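User: Hey, my collaborator sent me this sequence without any context and asked if I could get a structure. I don't really work with proteins. Can you help?
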Amino acid sequence: MELTEPQKKIAANAWALATEGKGRVLEDWAIPEAHELAEHGWLERRTEPNGDLSWWWTSTGETALGLSDVLGSAEGRQN
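Assistant: No problem. I've predicted the 3D structure and written it out in structure-token form, which is a compact way to encode the shape of the chain:
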């Protein structure tokens, strides 16, 4: 999956908050992008007690970042 710029921002923020054991509630404009990230396993949707949706970084997202680093490194060595 190639991430859009808004998806990169959402994913980066979710990753940063995960280091503190937190998720994120998003503004309305970001929800469709976050849904797509969740469909691909990068984020997990949760419903907060007040009914808001929150988005949490997943181990799949962590693996995808690791694979991206590996593949980027391999492509660099081939050039």
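In plain terms: The longest strand covers residues 43-47. You can pass these tokens on to your collaborator as they are.
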